Structures are given as C-alpha cells and as structure tokens.
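Email to the structure team, subject: Tn5252, Orf 9 protein model.

Hi all, the expression group asked for a predicted structure before they design truncation constructs. Nothing fancy, just the tokens so they can compare against earlier work. One-line instruction: predict Tn5252, Orf 9 protein, return tokens.
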Amino acid sequence: MSRYRTILKKFYITEEQNEIANNLIKMTNHLSFSSYARKMLFKRSPIYLQFDFKSYHDFIFQVRRIINNLRQLERIAKQSEDLDNVRIFHCCVEMMIGYEKKTSKQVKELVKRLNKKTR
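Reply from the structure team: attached below.
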C-alpha cells in the first residue's frame, strides 16, 4: 500500500509556538499536527487577518468631535448659568471620554491578540 502524500515538510518552532499549535489542534478537534496543518494551509479561503485602521481612526475622530461639541454646549450652559444643563453636558462629556478610552483599549487588546494568533 503506497502513501497518497509523499512529500515531507519540516520546520522548527519555539516552545511557546508549540504550545499554541497544540492548543489550536485541540480546539479544532484534529488528531495530529499534520492533519491540522493540511486543513489550515489548503483551505479554500485561507485565514488572513487585516485590521482596517482607517475606519477605526475615522470613528475616533467623530467621537472626539462629539466630545468637543458637548464641551461647547457645556460652556454655553455655564455662561447662561443653567446648572441643570451644565451637569447634563458635563456627564455627557465624561461618558463620551470614557467610551473613547474603553474603545481604544479594546481595539489595542484585539489587535495584540490577533497579532499573537497570526504569528
């Protein structure tokens, strides 16, 4: 009985990469590295991750414009001595700043994780 696959490919990896590969093999229910590698290398659409930073930066730019507009409204409310609106606009500014920081942190973590998985 002859083998269908006749060409052997070898390469070296670090301990950390080996651990990652073993975890991926377990998660995908493959029995061996060989079957996992064939499946991943010869998929119809290979896994290629690319993060669109332009749309992310556009989004952050718009959030910052909203923050700026809210600050202007807060200043106007202060000038008119309308304390209720001052509080409302101040809370909105703080909420949007928190949203921007949280979103930026999540995107950085996501990019970091994706880079680790694709290396």
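Residues 83-118 form the longest helix (36 residues). The helical segments are 15-27, 33-41, 53-79, 83-118. Ping us if the truncation boundaries need rechecking.
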